[in-house]
Amino acid sequence: MSNPQWQHSYQALGSRYTGPANPDPASSPEWMGWNEALAEQLKWPHNLRKTDDALAAFTGQSTLEGTRPSASVYAGHQFGQYNPQLGDGRAILLGEWSASPSELYDIQLKGAGQTPYSRGGDGKSPVGPVVREYLVSEAMHHLGVPTTRALAAIATGDRVFRSDVEPGAVMVRVAKSHLRFGSIQYFAMTREGDGLEELVDYAAERHFAEVLSAKSAESTAAKAEVLLEETVKRIASLVAHWQSLGFVHGVMNTDNMLLSGETIDYGPCAFVDTFKADAMFSAIDSQGRYRLSNQPGIAHWNTSVLASCLLKVLNPSEDRAVAYAQSVIDEFPRWYSDAFKTRIAAKLGLDSFRPEDTELHDGFLKTLEEDQLDLSLAYRWLTHQALEDSGHTPIGDLFIPSDALLDWRSAWERRRASNKADSQATAASMSQANPVVIPRNHHVAAAIADAEVQDYEFLKAAFGRWKAPFEWQDSDRLWAASPTPTERVTRTFCGT
Ligand code: AMP
Ligand code: MG
Question: Which of 230, 428, 450, 475 is the most buried (most CB within 10 A)?
Answer without folding.
Answer: 230
